Amino acid sequence: MPVPEGGVALVTGGSRGIGKAIAERLAADGLTVVTLSRTSGDVQADVGDAESVAAAFAEVRAQHGPVLVLVNNAGESQDGLAIRMRTEQWESVIETNLNGAFHCIRQGLDDMLSARWGRIVNISSVVGERANPGQANYGAAKAGMLSLTRTIAREMGRKGITSNAVTPGVIETDMTVDVADKLKAGVPAGRIGQPEEVAHAVSFLCSDGAAYVNGATLAVDGGLGA
Ligand code: NDP
């Protein structure tokens, strides 16, 4: 069954990088797409703030329709060895990457349960499964997203709602602009990935053909996590 009539796809962090490619790809698939970020996009909100997210979802519902496809892509990194990591660095990354996904899922599920149809895709990271020194906060948040993904899959499995994760490796965006060249050598594919390659995986997970894919983690990393 395709996205029910009137349903929209919400892509958090859809203003640039991987999120922008996902938004463009889902629109090309024929979905009505709404993007959300703090400073641009169709709706402005801080995903780490539950009240801000609730207000944003109310706005999206009123202006566009119920959120039946949710891509939790908004994310940030604030790297540093754990021994030197400030509490604010820890909290900010957990709030945006992990709490943000929860707040959006909590809102989106209301719409999806009413429609008895939904697709949730969480953009985690290879670092959620394979430790990267200097990213204790980011890795913990991304690992948490994987557990959240699977828990929602089990809780909602009978409701027509799927919950899956994508774990990108090194993708060419603003986030990796300073480190991409250095990291390239360690990627089995011998190159960094493009945002469109992540978007392709998200498109599959949102498609009719993926109705029986639930609780899965799909790596898009050129073999980095293998
Ligand atoms: P970018 O830094 O290019 O874009 C991040 C996006 O998230 C922007 O649209 C930004 O908009 C938005 N955003 C950040 N914080 C918040 C917030 N608190 N509330 C709402 N929106 C927010 O990142 P990428 O495209 O590289 O990454 C996208 C996702 O993919 C992230 O979750 C990242 O962790 C993950 N990822 C990226 C990899 C890579 O190599 N690039 C590898 C593995 C995973 P604004 O600033 O306006 O809020």
What is the number of E strands? 7
Uncertain parts: none
State the secondary-structure class: alpha/beta
Helix content: 40-55%
Q: Quick one: biggest sheet?
A: 7 strands, parallel
Overall, the morphology is: globular
Question: CA-to-CA gap between the ends?
Answer: 33 Å
Q: SSE order in H/E notation?
A: EHEEHEHEHEHHE
Tell me the CATH architecture: 3-Layer(aba) Sandwich
Helical stretch tally? 6
Number of separate structural domains: 1
Sum this structure up briefly.
The protein is α/β, with parallel strands linked by helices and 226 residues long.
Can you tell me about this structure?
This protein has one domain (8-220): 3-Layer(aba) Sandwich (Rossmann fold). It has 226 residues and is of the alpha/beta class. The termini are far apart. Helices cover 41% and strands 16% of the residues. Strands 3-2-1-4-5-6-7 form a 7-stranded parallel sheet, with helices on both faces. The chain is globular, with a radius of gyration of 16 Å. 47% of the residues are buried. The protein has helices at residues 17-28, 50-63, 87-115, 136-156, 180-184, 195-206; strands at residues 8-12, 32-37, 43-44, 67-72, 118-123, 161-168, 217-220. Helix 1 crosses helix 6 (195-206). The protein binds NADPH dihydro-nicotinamide-adenine-dinucleotide phosphate (NDP). NADPH dihydro-nicotinamide-adenine-dinucleotide phosphate binds next to helix 1 and helix 3.
Sum up the structure in keywords.
seven-stranded parallel β-sheet, Rossmann fold, binds NADPH dihydro-nicotinamide-adenine-dinucleotide phosphate, 226 residues, alpha/beta, globular
